[in-house]
């Protein structure tokens, strides 16, 4: 796509001003590039902004998934940026969404990012031209929509906006209420009701714990090989997957049947990029965003990068690392491989995943234990600073505790001693 050498290009467009977008903006500016972040909301922070706003109809989109009373399921000690950790005067390790939002605001102020952020500006179309990108931006303040031109695109729109709803027999027969966790806001709505929660990931477990304090009874449906600890939840019954819904409830795959008033689907989200034209060269098939090199660089148009697609990772650190990784190529410090080399690398990595049992495309960006090899790859390939060992050790210490130690794990307080060591104590 480029006639001008990549290292001579200067203008950076960042789509979104959440955790990933702020990192893309800050690192681009520090690399000497001209960067602007477009945020369709009225403030920065992305998914960490709590709003009681709900969709008026099935066609309206709600951006944030934040609900009342949420506390992080990772300690703040691993949630900061590499060069900007959370302040040590916050005693708790597992903090509120409001504290995360305040931290993101302080990050923007510390690095003087606000002059480079355009709030209530929505990117509605991005398409490649011969030598750059045409970006149509809708200014909600003035109700105007004009094209702007950029050399690089960072797609940082998050992936907690479009719910991934399962298809289960009889869903349309059930006469109770059905919602996705995306629009769950308060447990009070379920007072004295019977509720089925589908999914036992971080959201499913946490929302079950919230709702069960108000509800008459909660059924938690999942297919985890090891049952999570719900012994402390006296009114929660674990169930296998739903076989089919009935008018008043559901029949489960073990043949049991239950009745309930509400269903909450905690079934995850779809990667969605509605502003990207088809000639961008990216497609999403069963949540596999492809073709991407190292889960971030668009192989067909490598001056575009996607930040934050991998999951089961250390979120803020991986965002920052992906940005620093891509900037090494964008500034000319490192040479990108050829398209053929990048495709071969992608096919090799996906082949390894399929051999390890990751045959589901929806898990194409799942990391888990693979994340540590991924961090090493990015660092070794470009010479960027790797994630500190203490952060990796902290992350391993927290693994799966949101499932098996839900009632106690947030009582732990962590203290980082140095780049290698931390302490942990229970309240």
State the helix count: 9
**Sheet with most strands:** 5 strands, parallel
Radius of gyration: 22 Å
At the fold tier of CATH, the topology name of the largest domain is: FAD/NAD(P)-binding domain
**Overall domain count:** 2
Name the beta content range.
15-25%
- pLDDT below 50 for ≥5 consecutive residues: which ranges? none
The CATH superfamily name of the largest domain is FAD/NAD(P)-binding domain
**What is the CATH first-level class name of the largest domain?**
Alpha Beta
Strand order across the biggest sheet?
Answer: 3-2-1-7-22
- Count of DSSP strands: 24
Average pLDDT confidence is 93
Structural class: alpha/beta
Span between N and C termini? 57 Å
Helix content: 10-25%
Write down the overall geometry: globular
EC number: 1.-.-.-
GO molecular function: flavin adenine dinucleotide binding; N,N-dimethylaniline monooxygenase activity; NADP binding
Cofactor: FAD
Organism: Drosophila mojavensis
Q: What features would you highlight for this structure?
A:
about 425 residues; FAD/NAD(P)-binding domain; 2 domains; 5-stranded parallel β-sheet; globular; FAD/NAD-bd_sf
């Amino acid at each position: 796509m480029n006639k001008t050498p990549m290292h001579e290009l200067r203008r950076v467009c960042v789509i979104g001003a959440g955790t990933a977008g702020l990192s893309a903006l800050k690192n681009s500016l520090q690399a000497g590039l001209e960067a602007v972040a477009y945020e369709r909301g009225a403030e920065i922070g992305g998914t960490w902004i709590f709003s009681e706003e709900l969709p008026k109809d099935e066609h309206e989109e709600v951006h944030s998934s934040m609900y009342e009373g949420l506390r992080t399921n990772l300690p703040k000690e691993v949630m900061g940026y590499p060069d900007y950790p959370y302040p040590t005067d916050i005693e708790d390790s597992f903090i509120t969404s409001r504290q995360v939002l305040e931290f993101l605001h302080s990050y923007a102020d510390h690095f003087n990012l606000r002059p480079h952020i355009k709030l209530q500006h929505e990117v509605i179309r991005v398409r490649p031209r011969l030598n750059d990108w045409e970006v149509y931006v809708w200014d909600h303040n003035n109700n105007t929509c004009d094209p702007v031109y950029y050399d690089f695109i960072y797609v940082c729109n998050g992936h907690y906006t479009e719910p991934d709803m399962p298809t289960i027999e009889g869903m349309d027969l059930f006469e109770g209420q059905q919602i996705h966790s995306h629009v769950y806001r308060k447990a009070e709505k379920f007072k004295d009701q019977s509720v089925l929660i589908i999914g036992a990931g971080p959201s499913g477990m946490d929302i079950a714990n919230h709702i069960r304090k108000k509800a008459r009874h909660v059924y938690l449906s999942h297919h985890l090989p090891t049952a999570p600890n719900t012994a402390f939840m006296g009114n929660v019954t674990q169930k296998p997957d739903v076989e089919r819904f009935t008018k008043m409830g559901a029949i489960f795959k073990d043949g049991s049947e239950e009745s309930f008033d509400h269903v909450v689907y905690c079934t995850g989200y779809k990667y969605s990029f509605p502003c990207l034209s088809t000639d961008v060269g990216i497609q999403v098939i069963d949540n596999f965003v492809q073709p991407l090199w190292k889960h971030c660089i668009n192989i067909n148009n490598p001056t575009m990068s996607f930040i934050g697609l991998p999951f089961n990772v250390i979120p803020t650190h991986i965002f920052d690392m992906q940005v620093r990784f891509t900037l090494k190529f964008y500034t000319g410090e490192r040479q990108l491989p050829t398209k053929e080399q990048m495709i071969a690398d992608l096919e090799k990595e996906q082949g390894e995943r399929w051999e390890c049992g990751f045959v589901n495309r929806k898990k194409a960006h799942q990391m888990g234990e693979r994340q540590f090899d991924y961090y090493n790859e990015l660092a070794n390939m470009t010479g960027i600073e790797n994630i500190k060992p203490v952060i990796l050790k902290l992350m391993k210490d927290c693994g799966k505790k949101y499932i098996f130690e839900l009632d106690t794990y947030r009582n732990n307080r962590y203290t980082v001693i140095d780049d290698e060591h931390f302490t942990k104590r229970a309240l």
